[in-house]
């Protein structure tokens, strides 16, 4: 059974991805700081395919030992989904330096460093693999009050394209998925009027759902995507069409 590590898997998009990949037949290591009730329920439904591993991804110095522990417990990974992320909605002029540093650490430094260690394990195993980074349409479109977040996701896109070239000769694909506004906890705070306005801007006149993003990740992890690498797949119901 192929192992796939999914970060930020306790809720929202990450949980949807973890559940979908488990249903695809992978053994999914769901990584989060704590195990949510929803994740516990998902593990109970698929105990052979879904397991939990605790990690504070903000502690970058601990990622080497965390990666080593994953290999010792589960073996080398075949796939990695860098989904964990942080968002700060504020004008740059009003954003604290500590908030900027924290967001860039979680959204950029942490996934790059974790990928470094897990990609080493994939390379040593010599069986190819899949890496998917969760970006955002904000990297391409921009959005008022999300300049630092947009910068972090743009960095992930650049990381994706260059790493795809580094690892391609080892049959490891590297892609990104860029969701638009998705019906999750992150958009639950929007008013019905705001949600309707955002939906009207999309070609399909609706918001994408976590299952839609999970389906894109499922495809990129599949054998059908063996020749897809260095790309950014947009899942936004046509908001950027």
Based on the model shown, name its key terms.
241 residues, alpha/beta, Rossmann fold
Summarize this, please?
The chain is an alpha/beta fold and 241 residues long. 45% of the residues lie in helices and 16% in strands. Strands 3-2-1-4-5-6-7 form a seven-stranded parallel beta sheet, sandwiched between helices.
Explain what you see:
- The mean pLDDT is 95.
- This protein has one domain: 3-Layer(aba) Sandwich (Rossmann fold), CATH 3.40.50.
- It has 8 helices and 7 strands, in the order βαβαβαβαβααβααβ.
- It has helices spanning 12-23, 37-45, 63-74, 97-125, 138-141, 147-167, 192-201, 210-221, and strands at residues 3-7, 27-32, 50-54, 79-82, 129-134, 172-179, 232-235.
- 41% of the residues are buried.
- Strands 3-2-1-4-5-6-7 form a 7-stranded parallel sheet, sandwiched between helices.
- The chain is 45% helix and 16% strand.
- The chain has 241 residues and is of the alpha/beta class.
- Strand 4, helix 4 (97-125) and strand 5 form a beta-alpha-beta unit.
Number of strands: 7
Radius of gyration: 17 Å
Shape descriptor reads: globular
Low-confidence stretches: none
Give the strand order of the largest sheet, numbering strands 1, 2, ... along the chain.
Answer: 3-2-1-4-5-6-7
Question: Multimeric state of these chains?
Answer: single chain
Distance between the termini: 38 Å
CATH fold title: Rossmann fold
